[in-house]
């Protein structure tokens, strides 16, 4: 919606005034060959904890672009802690979920294996790359972390006591998210949260029962129409952000 | 999320017990060749106003499958009136908006031409086809209508007195949607609504002023991160449905 800065890159270095940051071969290629950057061009840098820094292209060598860090342009600020736990879906749509969840402010992406999950392998490195790219484009100062897939049962077995769960159940028994989240006491709103989204075809009854048995679980309804898993994820994150997060 | 019926088709015929419905060549091809339906197979039919009907494959001829209508399986019910007015974006993402908006319950898709719109032609027939397919898959009983593009100024000039506007402004001046929509009197919540989403790069100042000048406009914020136009549309529809719609 808003205009973007021309170039904005995530790096894993500390960011300090006057430092020379050498970009990875991939980022160097992107900046030098795709964006055709020239010495002196402005670039924004962020690393997830030092805010955003204005930098400029200092040297363009083969396979390595160097940036001079000039000054901090945005301070780091705290963000809500929100895990999206979701059953992996096919490739194009998992890319999409990683991108949109990043735009919408999720802090952690956790693929879960369920009884009806039929995706064998989850390319978490590809999800992470999608998350980095989306964070660069949406002016986030952080990049969501991505975990290896875990069985739903194991995730629930070691669930942190203080982490709330927003569970979008398909049986329409829940309140609207709007109502359910409004009613919560402030300390629960401010807790770390997770949104749990089922696979296409839904969780089975034992899985649904296990999620609902967690005393931190808030069951919400996403309405009478059947949502695909990726749509449900985006809808749920939006509702959570507006009611409990930083929107 | 929930399990889908195996075949579910939108038709433009009235639906009456014992009628024989002849499908279009495209739907016949889909059912006979893609889904490999056999005589006697169950199919659900809906037409936007007669509810959903159970039918079965009665005859499979070259280029024409005939279905026998058996009985009404779901009654038609009223749905909220929600227009999504959005600046067209490039092809893959406009398909996506048409699909997701349908899943999320939008009743009318209205492409708008803005000062920063750089899409020349909008394939409204393609948008309509995407909407039909999504409605078939998400168990909706209706299909959103799709209008030809209109200039934002013209749309606003003939704005119906009773249609509310949810405007997701990028300057962060609005309340959260959660708060803004909760505060509305019931008769405004129950009005027809439109959600207006700007182009990539945003509306310009005169356009934003024109939207805000409408006395029916509620300005809401979608948070501090930059959302792409398609993400903003899905987020806004979700928030509206949960607070004011039928979720």
Topology overview:
Two copies of one chain form a homodimer.
Chain A: E1 8-10, E2 20-22, H1 25-34, E3 42-46, E4 52-61, E5 64-74, E6 82-86, H2 91-103, E7 108-113, H3 124-137, E8 145-146, E9 150-151, H4 152-157, E10 164-168, E11 175-176, H5 177-182, H6 186-189, E12 193-197, H7 205-213, E13 217-221, H8 229-243
Parallel strand pairs in A: 1-3, 6-7, 6-12, 7-8, 7-9, 10-12, 10-13, 11-13
Antiparallel strand pairs in A: 2-5, 3-4, 4-5
Overview features:
elongated; Ribosomal Protein L25, Chain P; 2 domains; Alpha/beta knot; 247 residues; homodimer; 13 strands
Describe this structure as you would to a colleague:
2 copies of one chain form a homodimer. Chain A has 247 residues and is of the alpha/beta class. Chain A folds into 2 domains: 8-74, Hypothetical PUA domain-like, domain 1 (Ribosomal Protein L25, Chain P); 82-243, SPOUT methyltransferase, trefoil knot domain (Alpha/beta knot). Helices cover 31% and strands 26% of the residues of chain A. Chain A contains 8 helices and 13 strands. In chain A, the strands form 2 sheets. In chain A, strands 6, 7, 8, 9, 10, 11, 12 and 13 form an 8-stranded parallel β-sheet that branches. A 5-stranded mixed β-sheet of chain A has the order 1-3-4-5-2. In chain A, β7 (108-113), α3 and β8 (145-146) form a beta-alpha-beta unit. In chain A, α2 packs parallel to α3 (124-137) and α2 packs parallel to α8 (229-243). The first copy, chain A, is elongated and about 60 Å long. Chain A starts with 7 loop residues before the first strand and ends with a helix.
């Amino acid at each position: 919606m808003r205009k973007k800065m021309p170039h904005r890159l995530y790096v894993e270095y500390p960011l300090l005034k006057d430092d020379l940051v050498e970009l990875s071969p991939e980022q160097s290629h992107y900046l030098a060959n795709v964006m055709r950057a020239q010495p002196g061009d402005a670039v924004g840098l962020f690393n997830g904890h030092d805010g955003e820094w204005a930098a400029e292209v200092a040297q363009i060598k083969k396979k390595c672009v160097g940036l001079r860090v000039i000054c901090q342009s945005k301070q780091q600020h705290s963000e809500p802690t929100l895990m999206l736990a979701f059953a992996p879906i096919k490739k194009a749509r998992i890319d999409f979920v990683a991108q949109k969840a990043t735009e919408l402010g999720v802090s952690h992406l956790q693929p879960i294996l369920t009884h009806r999950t039929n995706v064998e392998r989850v390319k978490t490195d590809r999800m992470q790359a999608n998350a980095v790219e989306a964070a660069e484009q949406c002016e986030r100062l952080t990049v969501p972390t991505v975990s290896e897939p875990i069985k739903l049962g194991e995730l629930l077995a070691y669930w942190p006591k203080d982490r709330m769960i927003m569970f979008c159940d398909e049986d329409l028994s829940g309140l609207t998210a709007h109502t359910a989240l409004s009613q919560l006491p402030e300390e629960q709103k401010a807790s770390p949260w997770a949104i749990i989204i089922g696979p296409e075809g839904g969780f089975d009854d034992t899985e649904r029962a296990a999620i609902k048995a967690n005393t931190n679980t808030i069951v919400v309804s996403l309405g009478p129409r059947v949502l695909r898993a990726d749509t449900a994820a985006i809808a749920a994150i939006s509702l959570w952000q507006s009611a409990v997060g930083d929107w």
